[in-house]
């Protein structure tokens, strides 16, 4: 129980700091901290495979990609001419929608907590599917088709990223021509 | 012991933080990071439900969500790089025209 609260508090605080930071580099590093806390929660949930994948794939690969782009673009601070001193409901366009949506989310969350918090809090069953063997077997039998589609998705994303991030250099002359 | 409700509340709180980040921040990279927070909140509820129902399906769905998140990050960041080359800015309000 204590561990749950420690990880939960770290995850929530780090996530809030992610969206409170002005410098994207700090945001990325804090998000890695939040992912570490989530990985601890996965261990508490008897899901070691997801916990390790969280660290290796999310903190190790995706966040390094973000950090790489942040440092490549070298534009750390965002323009904040209208951020301060303006009431959230008076800001233009999406910010007003966001303020309304945030209030709606908080109201809905409070309603759900007061309504369902008392009877939905069942304990977890003692038996947990935590072996990587079971997950792998299921992944390659029942979920074999989605798994293969995933590889196509990764390929498309890779080609798309290369095409989108390429410099348009006009009609290129092949070397040696 | 923490119950299923504890994990679902934590997941909802993280999702709200991510949603707020998407709407509040004026930086494309921070917006993408907020989307990652939302995806992780959903992942947490998937794993918690899988644990509660004693099935491995929750963890397998999380595996797929992670692959989609990786693809989304790669393509999204490539688009951010392309936009930054054109406008020298990461503020989404500067990208209002479809063609330039």
Sheet having the most strands of chain A: none
Q: Structural class per helix/strand content of chain B?
A: mainly alpha
What's the CATH class of chain B, please? Mainly Alpha
User: The CATH topology of the domain at 1-77 in chain A, please?
Assistant: Four Helix Bundle (Hemerythrin (Met), subunit A)
Roughly how many Å apart are the termini of chain B? 57 Å
Mind telling me the C-alpha Rg of chain A? 22 Å
- The succession of helices and strands of chain A, N to C, reads HHHHHH
What is the element layout, followed by pairings?
The complex is a heterodimer of chains A (177) and B (100).
Chain A lengths: L1 H19 L3 H21 L3 H26 L20 H23 L15 H10 L2 H22 L12
Helix pairs in contact in A: 1-2, 2-3
Chain B lengths: L3 H21 L3 H26 L3 H31 L13
Tell me what you see in this structure.
- The complex is a heterodimer of chains A (177) and B (100).
- Chain A has 177 residues and is mainly α.
- Among the domains of chain A are: 1-77, NADH-ubiquinone/plastoquinone oxidoreductase chain 6, subunit NuoJ (Four Helix Bundle (Hemerythrin (Met), subunit A), Up-down Bundle); 132-166.
- Chain A has six helices and no strands.
- In chain A, helix 1 (2-20) runs antiparallel to helix 2 and helix 2 (24-44) runs antiparallel to helix 3 (48-73).
- Chain A starts with a helix and ends in a 12-residue tail after the last helix.
- Chain B is an all-alpha fold and 100 residues long.
- Chain B has one domain (4-94): Helix Hairpins, CATH 1.10.287.
- Chain B is built from three helices and no strands.
- Chain B is elongated, with a radius of gyration of 17 Å.
- Classes of the chains: A mainly alpha (177), B mainly alpha (100).
- Chains A and B meet through helix 1, helix 2, helix 3, helix 4 and helix 5 of A and helix 1, helix 2 and helix 3 of B.
């Amino acid at each position: 129980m204590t561990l749950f609260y420690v990880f939960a508090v770290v995850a929530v605080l780090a996530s809030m700091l992610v969206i409170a930071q002005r410098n994207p580099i700090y945001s990325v590093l804090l998000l890695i901290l939040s992912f570490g806390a989530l990985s601890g929660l996965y261990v508490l949930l008897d899901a070691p495979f997801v916990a390790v994948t969280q660290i290796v794939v999310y903190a190790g690969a995706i966040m390094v990609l973000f950090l790489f782009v942040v440092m490549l673009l070298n534009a750390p601070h965002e323009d904040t001419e209208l951020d301060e001193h303006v009431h959230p409901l008076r800001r233009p366009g999406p910010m007003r929608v966001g303020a309304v949506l945030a209030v709606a989310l908080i109201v809905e969350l409070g309603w759900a907590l007061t309504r369902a918090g008392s009877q939905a809090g069942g304990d977890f069953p003692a038996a947990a599917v935590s072996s990587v063997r079971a997950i792998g077997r299921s992944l390659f039998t029942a979920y074999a088709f989605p798994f293969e589609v995933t590889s196509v998705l990764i390929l498309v994303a890779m080609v798309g990223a290369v095409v989108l991030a390429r410099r348009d250099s006009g009609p290129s002359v092949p070397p040696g021509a | 012991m923490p119950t299923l409700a504890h994990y679902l509340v934590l997941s909802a709180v993280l999702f709200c933080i991510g949603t707020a980040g998407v709407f509040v921040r004026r930086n494309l990279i921070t917006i993408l990071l907020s989307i990652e927070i939302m995806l992780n909140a959903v992942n947490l509820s998937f794993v918690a439900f899988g644990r509660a129902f004693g099935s491995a399906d929750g963890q397998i769905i999380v595996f797929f969500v992670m692959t989609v998140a990786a693809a989304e990050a790669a393509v999204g960041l490539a688009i951010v790089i392309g936009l930054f080359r054109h406008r020298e800015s990461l503020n989404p309000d500067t990208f209002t025209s479809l063609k330039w």
